[in-house]
């Protein structure tokens, strides 16, 4: 998919971005979100997006560039790009959410073992 080289009117662009943000915010669950992402991103865009998220997560966990390259089939340049963006607010927010989910899952498993 190509992007237009013509710039939108700034106020229209802001309005459209707000609509997109509100639409994403209104998605109710994982299934709705998955359907949305699969329809609005082509396969390669979605793969690039998910790889960036995985790279950020693994960098935060201390994995090496070589480990990330081998597992995700990405270049060192891609990893370096994500590394340079990892302290941006959006990346920090995503990583915080992922870590909270990971923590909740770990404690859920521990509680299940304790109850049994």
Characterization of the model:
This protein has helices at residues 10-26, 30-40, 43-60, 65-72, 76-85, 89-115. The longest helix is centred in the last third of the chain and has 27 residues, at 89-115. It is globular, with a radius of gyration of 18 Å. α3 packs across α5 (76-85) and α3 crosses α6. The model has no long low-confidence stretch (mean pLDDT 92). With 116 residues, the chain is mainly alpha-helical.
Number of strands: 0
Rg, Cα atoms, Å: 18 Å
Q: Please work out how many helical segments DSSP would assign.
A: 6
Main β-sheet, in a few words? Answer: none
Q: What is the overall shape?
A: globular
Helix proportion: over 70%
Percentage of residues in strands: under 5%
Structural class comes to mainly alpha
Order of helices and strands: HHHHHH
Overall pLDDT: 92
Report low-confidence residues grouped into runs of 5 or more. Answer: none
First and last CA, distance: 52 Å
């Amino acid at each position: 998919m190509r992007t237009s080289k013509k710039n939108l009117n700034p106020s229209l662009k802001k309005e459209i971005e707000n609509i997109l943000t509100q639409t994403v915010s209104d998605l109710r669950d994982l299934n709705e979100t998955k359907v949305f992402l699969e329809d609005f991103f082509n396969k390669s865009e979605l793969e690039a997006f998910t790889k960036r998220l995985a790279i950020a997560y693994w960098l935060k966990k201390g994995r090496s560039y070589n480990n990330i390259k081998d597992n995700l089939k990405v270049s060192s340049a891609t990893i370096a790009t994500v590394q340079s963006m990892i302290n941006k607010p959006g990346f920090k927010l995503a990583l915080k959410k992922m870590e909270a989910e990971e923590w909740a899952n770990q404690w859920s498993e521990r509680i299940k073992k304790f109850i049994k």
